[in-house]
Design brief:
Blueprint lengths: L5 H14 L11 E4 L2 E2 L14 E5 L2 E6 L13 E4 L4 E4 L1 E2 L5 H8 L2 E2 L11 H15 L7 E6 L12 H7 L5 E5 L4 E4 L1 H6 L12 E5 L5 E7 L2 H5 L7 H16 L3 E9 L1 H12 L6 E7 L3 H7 L5 E2 L2 E9 L34 H13 L4 E5 L2 H18 L9 E4 L5 H10 L2 E4 L2 H5 L1 H8 L1 H5 L4 H6 L5 E2 L10 H10 L16 H7 L2 H6 L17 E4 L16 E6 L2 E5 L2
Parallel strand pairs: 1-5, 2-6, 7-14, 8-9, 9-10, 14-15, 15-17, 17-18, 18-19, 19-20, 20-21
Antiparallel strand pairs: 1-3, 3-4, 6-22, 10-11, 11-13, 12-13, 16-17, 22-23, 23-24
The structure holds zinc ion.
């Protein structure tokens, strides 16, 4: 066998190295996404000019740039995905919602009117309940439950009655809840099980509604709901575990790659831990532990660490109620009658400030992030004053806690200045402009109503703000949410503060990069940037270029988490 000179071998090796595809080096990408309109949400890139493609390896982004610049990442096994001109964005980050409570909605029929669902009249409502019974295979004798009907949106302009529900379902107990969750209608079987007849006395704080002949119509208001609700079996841990996949697929279908559980009791958190151990999470879940279980969570520890997609993000405390229910706590009174209140009706705090101070002290002292629900400006004042007191007494800098003010719906402009001083992160809820904008105008007057959830002003002041759906209060649809932040149109057509309409880019920041900041994950999420996680959403149209009215109709085509497709539109 002739000997080959070493020099020649070295030369041949060199040549082959130069020609070899990147696949033989460590640089080869698993996936290159190209031919897309890419909105990176990273201000370091000029999206319109430079970014045409993204390279992904393992679960991270290893290349962002022009297609020819990314050629070096193309290896033998690299998948080249042509997005055919669709729009690529970082995956959406849910600013605030209730994943666990939403799971309960999965086992109930959604009987809302457009745009949430398709119920336009009472026959539609019955048909939706029937379809739900069939889909879930609900046997005779078991509960059929629905949520979200609204008489104002039905052609009949009235509540369905027990007779209509009983005729359709003579052999099942049925209970359907009004969109406000403050009332609902039961059928005859359910009324009998609850022991309600025409002569039953109204419970304190509630009404069993009757017709002119004194016959119970099935409509139960406020505490009267409890007579039926207490008979409905709750979702147990096993059923909850079963529903987790279905629940996160629903979130993923809206382009969400990080979702939130906005008020978890210890039982729910135990189920989440079990799901994480079983590697059930395909998208990430940020959990806010309930302040009622503070001892449990502080003992649990491990705040801020992902474990198979599950993270304990912080502690949630509720400081007031809801503005549409007139239980949000304001400095100035409501302008319409508040049930159960005679004068100076400003709502009320849900917790005394001394209690808030206690919870805040324990959290700040241990470096645990606090998420405080506050809707009205008086609740926000209480939060701001308590924050100052607690940081003073602990000797901490007052701007490093990244305290999140969930809703911040009726924050005053002067309070936003204090948000800057304290580094507070407001998580706004612009869907209120559409769903309750007209109600707020009547209850609060135009000045307060038109400044609701001021995404634009906050951004202009340099405040990092997020925006959320509070699902199941409103659907977790992020494009609809983007539309409400940009258009702020109420159901009546009234625009809730023309000067508060955010730009599309501001609206997008609130559901991407700012969401990452809120959850202390801006180093790994929220934008298409080198080294961050390969979390993306693919849209059929570009929100920056369509007419603003059409933003709510943009479709999510695909959701990608860590380089893997977790949702694809069929
Ligand atoms: Zn909430």
């Amino acid at each position: 066998m002739p000997r080959i000179p070493l020099v020649l071998i070295a030369f041949l090796l060199l040549i082959s190295a130069c020609n070899s595809p990147a696949a033989e080096s460590d640089q080869a990408a698993d996936l290159i996404l190209h031919n897309a309109q890419i909105i990176t949400m990273d201000e370091g890139y000029d999206d319109q000019q430079k970014v045409e493609a993204v390279a992904v390896k393992d679960n991270k982004i290893i290349g962002v740039g022009k297609r020819k610049e990314l050629r070096k990442f193309k290896g033998e096994h690299t998948e080249m995905r042509d997005l055919q001109g669709k729009t690529l964005l970082p995956g959406f980050i849910d600013g605030h919602s209730h994943f666990a409570y939403g799971l309960r909605m999965l086992v109930q029929a959604n009987i809302s009117s457009p745009p949430v669902a398709e119920v336009r009249n009472i026959p539609d409502l019955i048909a939706t309940l029937k379809a739900h019974q069939e889909k879930r295979n609900i046997p005779r004798g078991e509960w059929i439950l629905g949520w979200g009907y609204d008489p104002d949106q039905l052609e009949e302009q009235r509540h369905p009655n027990q007779e209509e529900l009983s005729n359709a379902f003579p052999n099942h107990p049925v209970y359907i809840r009004h969109a406000s969750f403050h009332m609902g209608v039961a059928n005859e079987v359910a009324l009998q099980m609850a022991g309600i007849d025409d002569d039953t006395q109204d419970p304190v704080g509630g009404v069993i509604v009757r017709d002119e002949q004194g016959k119970a119509t099935g409509l139960l208001q406020e505490t009267a709901q409890g007579l039926v609700a207490r008979l409905i079996p709750p979702i147990g841990p096993v059923e909850m575990l079963d529903l987790i996949s279905e629940g996160q697929n629903y979130y993923a279908s809206f382009g969400i790659t990080t979702m939130q559980e906005g008020l978890a009791d210890s039982l729910a958190y135990e189920v989440f831990k079990e799901a994480a151990a079983l590697e059930q999470f395909i998208i990430d879940l940020e959990v806010l532990g309930s302040f009622r279980n503070l001892d449990y969570y502080l003992k649990e520890g491990n705040f801020g660490q992902y474990n198979n997609g599950l993270k304990l993000a912080g502690i949630k405390i509720t400081t007031d109620g809801s503005p549409q229910g007139k239980t949000a706590y304001f400095k100035d009174p409501y302008k319409t009658k508040v049930p159960g209140c005679i004068h100076d009706c400003r709502g009320y705090p849900m917790v005394p400030s001394s209690y808030l101070q206690q919870v805040m002290t324990r959290c700040y002292d241990q470096g645990v992030q606090l998420f405080a629900h506050a809707n009205g400006d008086a609740a926000i004042d209480m939060l701001l004053d308590t924050h100052q007191k607690v940081t003073d007494s602990l000797g901490l800098p007052s701007d490093e806690q990244r305290t999140v003010v969930i809703h911040s719906q009726f924050v005053r402009p002067d309070q936003l200045d204090r948000y800057i001083d304290y580094g507070f992160v407001p998580s706004f809820f612009t869907n209120h402009a559409f769903f309750w904008g007209d109600t707020h105008t009547a209850n609060l007057g135009p000045e307060r109503a038109n400044f609701l959830s001021p995404v634009k002003t906050a951004d202009e002041m340099g405040i990092i703000a997020t925006n959320h759906t509070d699902y199941p209060v409103t659907p977790p649809d992020q494009l609809f949410l983007l539309w409400t932040s940009v258009v702020r149109q109420a159901r009546s057509g009234n625009i809730m503060g023309k000067d508060q309409r955010a730009s599309v880019y501001q609206g997008l920041k609130a559901i991407t990069i700012n969401g990452a900041y809120q959850h202390h994950t801006e180093d790994i999420k929220g934008s298409i940037s080198l080294g961050k996680l390969a979390d993306f959403v693919v849209l059929d149209k570009n929100p920056l270029t369509v007419h603003v009215d059409d933003i709510k109709d943009i479709q999510v085509m695909e959701t990608i988490k860590g380089g893997y497709t977790v949702f694809e539109k069929k």
